[in-house]
Amino acid sequence: MIDSFSELREILKTGEGQREAIRAVLTAPDNSTLVINLPTGAGKSLCAQLPALLNSRNNNGVSVVVVPTTALAIDQERALKSKSSVHHATAYYSDDSVEGKERREGIRDRIRVGTQRIIFTSPESLMDSLAPALYEAAKLGILRYFIIDEAHMVEQWGDDFRPAFQEIPGLRRDLLRLNSFTTLLLTATLTESCLDTLETLFGKDLQVISAVQLRPEPAYWFKRCESEEVRKQRLLEAVYHLPRPLIIYGTKVKDVENWKRELTRAGFKRCDLMTGKSTTQQREQLIEKWREGKIDIVVATSAFGLGIDQSDVRAVIHLCIPETIDRFYQEVGRGGRDGKACMSLTLYTTEDFNVARGLNEKSTITIERGLQRWQSMFAKKEPLKDGKYSVPINNPPSLLEGDIDMQSDQNRAWNIRTLTLMNRANLIEIDSEEPPQKKNSESESEQAYQAAWDLYRNSRSIRIRNECHLEKFIWESEVEPVRHQRQSWSYKNLELMKEALKAKRCISEIFAQAYSIPSRHTPEPRNPVIVSHACGGCPVCRKNGVTPFPGIMPTSRPVWQKPNFIPGKEMQRVLVGEKNLLIFYESLEQLNKFQRGRKLFKWLIEQGMKNIVISPEYNQFLKETSKIHNSFIFIFDSYEPVLMPRIPTLIFHPPGTPLPAKYLSNYSTSTTTRIILLPINTPDPDREDRLLINIFSGRYFKFDVFCTECDLVE
Questions:
Q1: Which of 240, 290, 521, 663 shows the greatest Cβ crowding within 10 Å of its Cβ?
Q2: Is residue 21 domain-shared with residue 74, that is, in the same domain?
Q3: Are 30 and 152 contained in the same domain?
Q4: Is the dihedral of CA 628, 118, 182, 140 positive or negative?
Q5: Per the domain annotation, does 564 fall within a domain?
Q6: Burial of 665 (0-12, 13-18, 19+ CB in 10 A)
Q7: CB count, 10 Å around CB of 25?
Q8: Comparing C-alpha atoms, which of 64, 184, 201, 45 is closest to residue 129?
Q9: pLDDT value for 105
Q10: Which residues contact 704 (CB under 8 A, 6 or more apart)?
Q11: Local structure of residue 133 (DSSP, 8 states)
Q12: What pLDDT sits at residue 112?
């Protein structure tokens, strides 16, 4: 069981970016939204999962983690259980077997009472069968965190993408009306386009924790092949010689299936396949074999490996040209997660350019078709409470012969994309309504309940933001710029991918251009995202004799400028309105006698001191803190006011060392409580010829007096 932040630190990586993200999550104000942008392999998922566990200990608490694939949900459940003794994290996914239905019903029941602490699920399950239980949890105030892992996927709205990702913000917005919780958006590949989309969908007041360092492990190699036959020969040669495990990526399902057959025909038996057509059972079996080392080659489309923490992948081969530099970097990033060298090899043909261009160009709906779809949906609107409307998403776009029978899932997807496009252009706001709840009443038939669910699934709740939403001129003036900007970003992303194939500059510069985000002053201030360059070897560096180099991880500054924690009532009584308090002790023997130091630390932490500044050699004073329920603390070796969360801070200053002047400075912490426990013979930091206790004008106590005042005497 994880009982304190000091124990949690043993599970975390060592990166400062991850530590700052954890601090930001745990100190987030109510209803806040935080983007966590950390490199692949830096432990960003744990930044959300562990605070969720800490904030649901010993009382009810539920956190939902939305992941792109069922395979990833299962993998994250396994990974989290392996890192702690907690057994209240589970994956929720579709399974029509009797056991599967019973399992899902059990999870929903535990969500309703708050004992299911973490749920990993897909966007589709979230919007469907899981939604009623989450509404019940929100009503009870036990929904702690709403987490979207791989949040950059929300921005991707092409033909082959599942539109349920775009609907998540509406559900979240409605849940927030019932109670407060923190929203976390996790990504390793945040672009300016992606951040703009997240702001549109989740609010412009979201904060970003970012410490972006390009991956130093991959060495990049590119080779154009004159024909498919030449590419096949080079692929087989590469697979014979490259280290494994390795992943081979293609764009089209048909191509991936063909490559798998070629490898099998060539004698590679420890090889398997994963595409969008793979069933849940097939995906689970493949991942299990992959983990157990029963296979060491996977041929796949882009979804494989997404977020799965398989650290020892040694090579990634592309038999295609990814339609964006972003997709390329994400897929290459599935190699070398253990920090050891890996290889990226791209074998491409001229025809691959056409495939990539085609995928890039059909990412958004046209103005004419979008307006047609919207007019058809809005014609069948139903008014809801609070100024909302329900519109059908299974409606055909028109009554023309080619459209009237259009009732497919693809039609629903295009209708949802239309609503998303309008949402981005501020013509409407996608919202949500509580799903039907099954009543314990004989008067309600199963047929009536199913009919209510079908209506819920096939409609969406919206608010009108522009009264001229049905006019073509508004679509031309408001929607078209959004489409144009989206297409411009897509075009630039493809051009960077093309440049990587025939680069004239280090590939780290190309990646940095894709992931750097400039600062912004209006309409909402935005701090810049700076990318630290790293290159494990690329054609340009090899040509110029530049050896592989790692980058320096940038430091992310705290995001919450207002304190989110206030001291307890007893502490406030002692402070009498002051922000700073000194407690002078005679000697370490005085603190150790009858364990008085431990009891004092325990009491101060119970009263809200969350930042603890203490040298490791004196950690014995923290041993009593494990008995504090529902508490977490941040432990620092030295006082760093600029880098610390703006929350109440306790500083233990040992005997025999000068007191740094910054310990008494109000810089950056004037609005937070600070208590310093220090020797009575501590000199004034400004003049060594006098004692601090004799000239300090603020509030202070001697140790025994303070213990008496706070009823800590034996």
A1: 290
A2: yes
A3: yes
A4: negative
A5: no
A6: middle
A7: 23
A8: 64
A9: 93
A10: 590
A11: H
A12: 93
- Count CB atoms within 10 A of the CB of residue 554: 16
Structure tokens at 23: 């601090």
Q: What is the DSSP letter of 268?
A: -
Alpha helix positions (H), 502-557: 507-515, 539-544
What is the number of domains present in the chain? 4
What is the model's pLDDT at position 404? 58
Kindly report, residue by residue over 248-303, the tens digit of the pLDDT: 999 888 999 999 999 999 999 999 998 877 777 787 788 888 888 899 999 998 76
Element (H, E) at 148: strand 143-148
> If you count them, how many residues does the chain have?
714
Which CATH number fits the domain that encloses residue 154? 3.40.50.300
Q: Which residues in the chain show pLDDT less than 50?
A: 1-13, 157-160, 668
* Residues 447, 475 within the same domain: yes
Q: How far apart are CA 143 and CA 182, in angstroms?
A: 9
State the Cα–Cα distance between residues 456 and 434, nearest whole angstrom.
9
550-553 long-range contacts (CB < 8 A, ≥24 apart) are: 550/213, 550/216, 551/213, 551/214, 551/216, 551/508, 552/213, 553/15, 553/16, 553/17, 553/211, 553/213
Widest CA span in the chain:
95
Residues 6+ away with beta carbon under 8 Å from 407: 394, 396
Q: Which of 313, 295, 163, 146 is nearest to 245 (CA)?
A: 313
| 586 and 627 housed in the same domain | yes
Q: Residue 20 burial by CB count (10 A; 0-12/13-18/19+): exposed, middle or buried?
A: buried
Q: Give yes or no for a cis peptide into 245 (omega within 30° of 0).
A: yes
Q: Provide the pairing of β-strand 182-187 with 33-37.
A: parallel
Question: If we measure between CA atoms, which residue out of 490, 185, 487, 199 comes closest to residue 326?
Answer: 490
**Contact at 8 Å (CB) between 334 and 305?**
yes
Interval 34-60: pLDDT, tens: 999 988 777 788 888 888 887 776 667
Its domain, for residue 402, covers: 367-483
Q: Say if strands 459-464 and 389-392 run parallel, antiparallel, or are unpaired.
A: antiparallel
Determine contact, residues 50/75, Cβ cutoff 8 Å: no
